[in-house]
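The following block was generated as part of the benchmark described in Methods. Ligand: calcium ion.
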Amino acid sequence: MNLPGDMLQATERALREAQPGSLVGMIHVHVRRIRQIAVALGHAQAAALPDAVATRLRDALRGSDHIYRIGSQDFMVLLPQLLSPGHAELAAQRLLREFERPLQVGDHLIMAVVALGLAWSPEHAGDADALARRATAAVDDAIARSTRLHLARGAGEDALLLEDLRAAIRGNELSLVFQPIVALRDRRIAALEALARWHCPRRGDVSPDRFVPLAEQGGLAADLTRWSLYAALREHADVLRSAPAVRCAINLSPRVFAEAGLVEQIVAALSIWGVPAASVVIEVTETAVMEDPEVSARTLSALRDVGLGVAIDDFGRGYSSFSYLRQFPATELKIDQSFTRDVVRDDRTRRLVGAMVTLAKGLGIETVCEGVEDDATLQVLVDLGCDNVQGYLLSRPMPCGDLGRWIASHSPATATTG
Ligand code: C2E
Ligand code: CA
Ligand code: CA
């Protein structure tokens, strides 16, 4: 999200002019479900909604506070000269209360649902850009937790790690490893999933389970996605020379999934590396897809329209809604490891996975079972008719340098699963 220059300047000024002991607050206001409102009202009427929201914000604030519109459903509120964190929270609570009354939009009364993210300086950040990022990270948290207000976390360990991560992405210090996805039909390698790795010189290896969510909460989701996309496609262009049928699976952060320009960005990256869209699968988690099903359906269609494969990752982990599968034009369903792990010893899990496979087949969607670690599990998945498998039994994720040898040794003539 591009922040307006006047907002950054005003924030810098407020930070400079803050009296000793006083705080500068920032609230990211996100208006939720605006698309549903547009559908209900018609686009012409809905276009008046942001103005109505801005007026309502204005009513709740002091004269010295500033409001900036930063996107179709996002505003930033700058609160200079706050006496204490308690005053920052009070301002946020006052905003929330204002949205408990309906808004007049044209001839309609609309209940706007808002999520707020609050951060303040000096506790959370020292400059305008960082302060805005913390407010955005806080609103992302509020949205993810379905709460209405979320405060930024203090500048503790997370903030320090985030700064290192920012430098690592900019300095190209991350790397990718690739894990094969194998087709059960012929035991050929169907795809390679690109997984990010971070070896920090000071901290050692930092797990993606730690740094990926941190990137998302800390406003680095777009940078991380751009980095993985370019790095994965560069390697994949190389793989395609010896193995033209192998696809590349790339994880997309939930935060960028709903952003405008995503498809164009991917298409541009494909053309830079000369990789055909059909040999790339974009993985997005089920939870991300369910956040705003309507936008997701549209993004998934747009990805499909340019010829990309689309996989719904970690399927079954969140609150899966089977009915939505009808709407989501996915090409693959990746059944979460938590199911794969239990298919041998738990009859109900086995039946559930069997049902997912059958359902997917009926919709023309391929299945991938993740986290296959032993032969017994593999056999159950073969029996259930699962299309593809991925897991330590077949291969751990490996550095690019090892791919050529692995692919050559798993060509059909010598295919094994060991
Ligand atoms: P994911 O997309 O579900 O990736 C699969 C994870 O399962 C990987 O963990 C992989 O190493 C691990 N795995 C594969 N086979 C097995 C197995 O047999 N047993 C067990 N126990 N684990 C197995 P990893 O590499 O630690 O990545 C964790 C998560 O971080 C990924 O989960 C993905 O959500 C995220 N991630 C990784 N790289 C990227 C990236 O470049 N961009 C984004 N946005 N997210 C990424
Ligand atoms: Ca994945
Ligand atoms: Ca997964």
